[in-house]
Write a structure and sequence with these properties.
heterodimer; A: mainly alpha; 0% strand; globular; B: mainly beta; Immunoglobulin-like; five-stranded mixed sheet; 10 strands
Chain lengths: 560, 145
């Protein structure tokens, strides 16, 4: 892997290259993604805080910011906007910096602009109260067409980003026969091939929802729209996780002078995520009529399968820690933990995220365990679960990575690094407090997505309130943590002067291995075919069953 | 990692055994109904508790914004009740915390879930899927005595 300073794109021998396709322009594109993600995170966090206070009965929300409207905004901004922009920025960066870029960044910018326009359209419809359908947009709740169109554009924009990443990887392969695709670019390609396969589901759903919301069709196939949504909805989760794994494998070892534990293991983990992420979505539909118990069991099995690359990752990350520590003469578990660079917010963000992921992983296995889901489905447990996953390992690793990327991209030193370090701990403590309270409330039966759970003082609901107070306190810590992140991220650009000598950015090299990585690990086209085949196999039966039963279309309505 | 994989195999074996031997599967009824004609479709035209010849019970529920029908179901102690629930408008949830009763309710489809009430008391029934502005009001009571 080549180390690239900010003075020119890698591998170009053409002296005109840097002028035509300047690094400044690609840095700006990545920064645009990261700062857009930051803006979404900030607004989303404010809405999250207000919901927490409302549910704990600390305040009554005004009509313009009613609970369900800001819940929709919070879900869309956090789950779809923050994550997607950050991953597009991160992976564009990782591709450009690990293989020689051969084309202009115009395609990437086109993607960014389409994503931004889509986001603004959807967000304005939500804030105007025309799309209070939550981020899952379950039909037959019927939002204004512009909301669905905006969401479609957000996804369509990512296809341009995907095309930009993939064409660079493909031409690298063509121009360098026999050479391995660099590890970060390999991860990016796996992620975006998976993403394209997954987003077909949501785009097809939109092709049903948009004409229906325009009044061109009189009814909507509710069960089909739900299956299409969850066909997309779970690989979405793995899209987030692959972003975090890219950071854990390729960036985090640089914070302690370590290496990627194994080139071939890393490639295999991403390939398994590529092929196993999609055929699992029905585990979100365990409690639904119209889907038979057999298909639900099948998706339990496949969901267990996609746990394997996560086990591999946990093993590889800890192995990388241990090998680096041993090289530095440190032995033993406690000594190794103490030796790790806990003063570096880049490391600490990811490391605390990994700790949260232990809880997230346990909870996830419960949720995906077929009949077990009855105990927790649509309760606050689920809310606790995804806050300790997307809001834990994913968000915290992204924020930590931003502490590395923003200085690398702006050529400035990180502003207030101690504040950044405190921010990661603040997030960790806040999230632990909030998600634990949510998990407990869920086990007590408290429903999710409900503005007020007092139910006129019903006896069964009385145990739920105390947990919501703790959740609101945790939410407050998280909100403060987001503000700290904004100060550091924006302060780095605005308050620090550019350094004369840019700090070089490099991904972690891989350990030398006795056996070379199998060439098949770079045959991405064939792995993509396997991914498509598995997705078709997993959904062919359920879709056929559902479409062959004569069922009714729902006209849809606005119930808010 | 080996331990993790072994645990996953144990989990899978456990839930599969429970499904095959004891019939413990998530509610997965495949039965359709015209959502516009629920009030004319027997037995949903008379929501409520019906006793069967074999001594068990069936409860027919209609969910619509923002309430359930029937109101205040009274169930004899020890009764084994199979609930049949459908919606006339949007997606709802049907959940009785502290019991295993929890299912989605989709317009156009009939959901089923069974439970034996062995403890007397007043149970809270809530809609646990967002259905609109009055979702937080959508609750009822099941009294077991």
């Amino acid at each position: 892997m080549s180390t690239i300073s900010g003075t020119g794109s890698a591998g170009s021998t053409d002296p005109g290259f840097a002028m035509r396709y300047s690094v400044a322009s690609e840095n700006l594109l990545v920064l645009a993604h990261i700062y857009t993600a930051t803006a979404a995170l900030t607004v989303g966090a404010l809405f999250g805080l207000l919901q927490g206070f409302s549910r704990a009965n600390f305040l009554a929300l005004p009509a313009q910011f009613d609970y369900y409207r800001i819940l929709t905004a919070h879900g869309v901004l956090m789950a779809l906007v923050f994550t997607t922009f950050f991953i597009c920025g991160l992976m564009t960066f990782a591709t450009y910096r690990s293989i020689p870029r051969i084309r202009s960044v115009r395609l990437g910018w086109t993607g960014y602009c389409i994503m931004l326009v889509g986001t603004l359209m959807a967000a304005s419809e939500i804030l105007a109260g025309n799309a209070t359908v939550l981020y899952t947009m379950y039909a037959p709740l019927k939002a204004d067409p512009l909301f669905y169109l905006g969401a479609t554009l957000l996804v369509a924009g990512t296809w341009f980003v995907a095309a930009d990443i993939l064409r660079n990887v493909i031409s690298f392969g063509r121009n360098n026969p026999g050479k391995r695709i660099p590890l970060p670019a390999h991860a990016c390609a796996c992620t975006f091939v998976m993403w394209i396969i997954a987003t077909v589901g949501i785009v097809v759903e939109m092709l049903l929802l948009i004409p229906w919301s325009l009044g061109w069709t009189s009814g909507i196939d509710v069960s089909l729209s739900r299956m299409l949504f969850w066909y997309f909805g779970h690989p979405l989760v793995y899209f987030w996780i692959m972003g975090a794994y890219l950071i854990w494998y390729n960036v985090i070892p640089t914070t302690y002078g370590g290496k990627v534990f194994s080139d071939s293991l890393t490639r295999l983990a991403f390939l398994l995520l590529l092929v196993l992420s999609t055929p699992v979505g029905i585990h979100h539909q365990f409690l639904e009529p119209g889907v038979s118990a057999g298909w639900k069991w099948l998706h339990t099995l496949t969901t267990y399968g996609v746990v394997i690359p996560s086990f591999m990752t946990a093993f590889a990350i800890f192995a990388s820690f241990e090998i680096a520590a041993r090289r530095a003469g440190v032995r033993g578990f406690v000594a190794t933990v103490r030796w790790l660079p806990w003063t570096d917010p880049v490391f600490t963000g990811s490391a605390l995220g990994m700790l949260l992921f232990i809880f997230g992983g346990f909870g996830g296995i419960v949720n995906s365990s077929y009949s077990m889901d009855v105990l927790v489905h649509n309760t606050m447990w689920i809310v606790g679960h995804f806050h300790v996953t997307v809001g834990g390992p994913v968000a915290l690793s992204f924020i930590g990575a931003a502490y590395k990327l923003v200085p690398a991209l702006t050529g400035r030193k990180l502003y207030a690094p101690k504040l950044a370090l405190a921010q990661t701990w603040m997030w960790f403590i806040g999230m632990l407090l909030m998600s634990t309270s949510m998990h407990i409330a869920g086990l007590l039966g408290s429903p999710r997505r409900t503005s007020d759970v007092t139910y006129f003082g019903a006896a069964g609901a009385q145990s739920w309130h105390g947990e919501m107070v703790f959740a609101a306190i945790g939410g407050t810590l998280l909100f403060i943590s987001v503000l700290m992140f904004v100060v550091v991220a924006v302060g780095t650009r605005l308050l620090n002067e550019p350094e004369t000598q840019r700090e070089a950015f490099a991904f972690a090299p891989a350990e030398e291995e006795s056996m070379p990585t199998a060439p098949a690990f770079d045959w991405l086209g064939r792995w993509a075919t396997v991914a498509v085949v598995l997705a078709v196999l997993a959904y062919m039966g359920p879709l056929h069953d559902q479409l062959s039963v004569r069922h009714f279309l729902a006209p849809g309505m606005r119930t808010w | 990692m080996t331990f993790g994989l072994a645990m996953m195999a144990v989990f899978l074996a456990t839930i599969t055994t429970a499904a095959v031997v004891d019939g413990i599967v998530p509610p997965s009824n495949v039965q359709t109904i015209d959502p516009a004609k629920v009030s004319q479709t027997p037995p949903f035209d008379h929501p409520g508790l019906h006793k069967l010849a074999n001594g068990s019970y069936e409860a027919y529920y209609v969910a619509h914004i923002f309430s359930f029908e029937p109101h205040h179901l009274s169930v004899p102690l020890g009764a084994h009740v199979t609930f049949y629930v459908t919606s006339t408008d949007v997606e709802h949830g049907f959940s009785v915390p502290e019991t295993g009763i929890n299912t989605m309710v989709t317009p156009g489809w009939v959901s089923t879930v069974s439970h034996t009430f062995t403890k007397p008391g007043k149970y809270l029934l809530v809609c646990n899927e967002y259905c609109g502005a009055g979702h937080q009001l959508m609750a009822d009571a099941i009294e077991v005595r």
